[in-house]
Structure formats: structure tokens, C-alpha cells
Write a structure and sequence with these properties.
Elements: H1 2-10, E1 24-31, E2 42-48, H2 53-64, E3 74-79, E4 84-87, E5 99-103, H3 121-129, E6 138-140, H4 149-163, H5 166-177, H6 188-200, H7 202-220, H8 230-243, H9 251-259
Parallel strand pairs: 1-5, 4-6
Antiparallel strand pairs: 1-2, 3-4, 3-5
Helix pairs in contact: 4-7
């Protein structure tokens, strides 16, 4: 018995498991929807075995020579049997995957190597007249982020900084003054008519102004996880309401930056 105890005490512990070494691996990327792209178009990338999905996307756009596609690029996987896809999160690991599907990339050929389209005019016209039925692609879009009060205030400060930019302010002023330009060379009744037309088309003016605002918003919003689009602006405003941070926003400053010298109410007394 003593001999068995002695052997048990001297038995070596099992060797500790060591993490797998990081190495270069090849990942094949194909279009998730083949109908919109040339057959068998694909890209072979070399990345680290512990790479994240964001690293794979960065490697893909670098391989294509099109860094501007990073925002629209989405690595996805099929969900169910109805043709829907689910997006991988940027921080998700590759985890041994060697083939991935992508959405938001027009071509998987490097810049300058895309095939030139040479379609006869008659065939092109016929194809445009024929109805095409494509399977509906459903992408599971992640929910917008939830901001803390400090994050919401930081986002607001970044927006104020962007709206304060002299170039943005000049574009805004040019847009506002467009309706009343060349007043000195126009007859009063013509000016009044122009102003009346401006007021009769508020939707058009509002749409143009929102496009200008979006030039700043689409740069700032993605830093905080929102889309750089009208939907992203809507989601941001919902977060402001949820946190109550809208009450802390410098409303007077923002209104001055966005709406000062608005010609909407700049109708001269002669127009009455």
C-alpha cells in the first residue's frame, strides 16, 4: 500500500493544453446572391487563423483595391430555407471557416480587372423589357446601439462640430440664398413670385436641406454604431429620447447653425 501511495504522489500532472499557434490561412469569398454576378466569381484571401470578420472584410477590400466598399461590405451566412441571410458581427472570430459569403460588393475582381460589358443593343433592350424574377434577399439587420448619456452627449458634440465647419456653413448659406439671388436685377413682382414658388414647394426645399445635413451626419453616426442614412438619423433621435439627453443639447446653438438666415420667412413687405 505504501508503494502505491508513493507512485501516486510521484505521478506527473497531465500536460497543460497550449493555444493553437496563429498561422496564415486561406479564405475563399463568394457572392451570397450568384444571380447578380458572373458565374464562379470569387476571391481568395490570406488572413490570420485568429482573424475577426472585420479583418477579413478589410483584407477583401484591400485585395480588390476598393477601400470605399468597406462600409457596404457584409459577410453573411444563410438562415433557414427561404433565402435569407444573417450578418456576422465585426468582432466575431473566423473559427476555422475557410469559405464565406458576401453582400454589398459589386465585383470580386480587383480594380481594373472587371470584364467589360459588351452586350448588343437589341439584346440589351430585349432583356430590359423582359420581366425578371429574383429571389428576395432578406438580411437580418442588427438593432441600433443603445447609447449611454455620456455617449449621446459626445455624439451631439461631434454633430455640432461638423455643422460648425465653415465649408458646411457656406453650402447652407448658398442653399438658403439661392431663392433670392440676383434680387437687384429682378423686378419686384418676379422676386415675390419666386418667393411664393419657394413657399409652395416646402417639401422640395426640406428634402434638399436634409441631404445637406446628412453630409455631416453620415460621417459622425457610424462612429457610434448607427447607419449613415436617414434611418440612422431616426435611430439616433430615438436614442436621444430614451436617454433624455436631448434636453441637455445646446438647442439654441444647433438651431442657429442649421436654420439661421433661412429664406423661408424672408418675404419682403412688398409681397404683402
Amino acid at each position: 500500500a505504501a508503494e502505491r501511495q508513493s507512485k501516486a504522489k510521484t505521478r506527473a500532472p497531465p500536460p497543460a493544453r497550449t493555444a493553437a499557434p496563429v498561422r496564415d490561412v486561406e479564405v475563399l469569398v463568394r457572392h451570397a446572391v450568384q444571380e447578380d454576378h458572373p458565374a464562379n466569381e470569387e476571391a481568395l484571401l490570406t488572413v490570420k487563423s485568429n482573424a475577426t470578420m472585420k479583418s477579413v472584410k478589410e483584407a477583401l477590400v484591400a485585395h480588390l483595391g476598393k477601400p470605399e466598399l468597406l462600409r457596404s461590405c457584409r459577410l453573411v451566412q444563410p438562415v433557414g430555407e427561404n433565402g435569407a441571410f444573417s450578418s456576422f458581427k465585426d468582432n466575431e472570430k473566423l473559427n476555422g471557416r475557410r469559405a464565406l459569403l458576401v453582400l454589398g460588393i459589386p465585383s470580386l475582381r480587383p480594380a481594373g480587372e472587371e470584364p467589360a460589358e459588351d452586350v448588343p443593343a437589341e439584346k440589351s433592350l430585349q432583356a430590359s423589357l423582359e420581366p425578371r424574377s429574383k429571389p428576395e434577399v432578406k438580411v437580418a439587420v442588427p438593432e441600433p446601439p443603445k447609447l449611454s448619456i455620456s455617449q449621446a452627449l459626445a455624439l451631439q458634440r461631434d454633430l455640432l462640430q461638423g455643422f460648425s465647419d465653415p465649408e458646411f456653413q457656406q453650402k447652407r448659406k448658398d442653399q438658403c440664398s439661392k431663392i433670392v439671388q440676383d434680387v437687384s436685377m429682378s423686378h419686384t413682382i418676379v422676386v415675390v413670385s419666386q418667393l411664393w414658388q419657394r413657399q409652395s414647394e416646402p417639401r422640395k426645399f426640406s428634402a434638399e436641406r436634409q441631404k445637406l445635413f446628412l453630409t455631416v451626419q453620415k460621417v459622425v453616426l457610424p462612429r457610434y454604431g448607427f447607419e449613415g442614412s436617414p434611418k440612422g438619423v431616426f435611430d439616433m433621435l430615438q436614442q436621444f429620447d430614451r436617454t433624455g439627453s436631448c434636453k441637455l443639447l445646446q438647442g439654441a446653438v444647433l438651431n442657429h447653425l442649421l436654420f439661421a438666415e433661412d429664406p423661408a420667412e424672408a418675404i419682403p413687405a412688398t409681397a404683402q
